[in-house]
Amino acid sequence: MTTTPKVDRWVIWSLGATSLAISAAVAVFNPRVVSFRPFDATDFLQMMLPLVMVSLFIERALEVFLTSWRAKRGGQLKERAKEARTKRQIGGPRHADEIALDCHQNQTRRVAFFAGTALGVILAALGIRVLEMFVNPSAFASLPDVQQSLFRTTDVLLTGAVLGGGSDALHQMVLVFTNFFESAKGRTKGPSGNTVSTESGGESPRW
């Protein structure tokens, strides 16, 4: 029987306590529902492509810094691991240099992720955000000041995590939504390509 590590249990209890606190705050303050503005696939791409560009800039900047910092050590470990693999018998235990190379690469990926997330949070705090682009400005301005501040704070953290995840993740996100828009647009057209009326007698699009 396996037991949950103390760290994992601490994370689970922290998330549970945070969720309960947020639920209680919502029950007490009853914040309004945020209204999103209408947009199509073209608008979505125009809003998301700058985020992809920023994520690419972050990746390139981190690549330059990490290469100058960790590439020398990584190259040495690769050579040692390559020699160890050629000498190791099939099915034999891994050499210490191979394990050291894996540890070095894993550590580099962790450093890149946390550094990218930190840069993403900084950029989001300066005004590059994910959710606020889609919110109806007039409806958002009517929200209580506390709710606006909490929304922006959450948006900053979310944007930092999205940018820290890399441009590939953003690219996949864009593909998912554009494919959805295209399929939804196709369902609103009849067999001849004409748009089906949503009034009485016409079939409503199933979005």
Q: How would you sum up this structure in a few lines?
A:
The protein is mostly helical. The protein has one domain.
Structure characterization notes:
The C terminus is likely disordered. α2 runs antiparallel to α3, α2 packs across α6 and α3 packs antiparallel against α5. Helices cover 71% and strands 0% of the residues. The protein is built from 6 helices and no strands. It is extended and about 70 Å long. The chain has one domain. The longest helix has 47 residues.
Q: Beta-sheet strand percentage?
A: under 5%
H/E element sequence: HHHHHH
What is the overall pLDDT average? 79
Whole-angstrom Rg: 24 Å
Total helices: the number is: 6
Alpha-beta content class: mainly alpha
Shape: extended
Spans where pLDDT lies below 50 across 5 or more residues: 195-207
How far the N terminus sits from the C terminus, by CA atoms, comes to 46 Å
Largest sheet: none
* DSSP helix fraction: over 70%
In total, the number of domains comes to 1
Count the strands?
A: 0
Structural descriptors:
single chain, 207 residues, mainly alpha, 6 helices
Summarize the topology.
Blueprint (H helix, E strand, L loop, with lengths): L5 H24 L11 H47 L8 H31 L10 H5 L3 H20 L2 H21 L20
